[in-house]
Predict the structure.
Amino acid sequence: MQDINDLDTVLIRELPVLKRFAMALTRERYAADDLVQDTLEKAILAWPSRRRQEAARAWLCAILYRHFLDGQRRNGRLRKLLQRFSTAEPETVTLEQQLQDQQALGEFARLPEAQRSILMLISVEGMSYEEVSDVLGVPLGTVMSRLARARQAYRQLLAEQPPAVATSLRVVK
């Protein structure tokens, strides 16, 4: 029971530090609150496995910062993907690019489910290899080898496809 009391004491003592750090990173009150809450959840779950000699403040700030970076990467990938495949701005995307995008999505759909899922989790969702290992229930080495094979298969499918639009256009009067 002493360990739980230590956890409560540490979290209460470090909460203002975490809030200030989260606010400095996100610059938005609600986003900072969410980041602190996620950090506290992770800290509570990881408390029994943390190294005792670690300084609690540094450990908590590291959790918060890593979670913030993971969210930034995930949001950046999602934003790029949405921009690339969005039809909301057709004037900024050429017809050729739209056809290439549709072709790439079609080829992605041809991949086996196991390869599609691992590419989605890592490349689009930005999950770490460890997280994907937990999600799929496979060893870390299996995740890495499956990812390598999935990327290779996708590159191969894309390489086999002819260009989406002919490069020479005929002038019609």
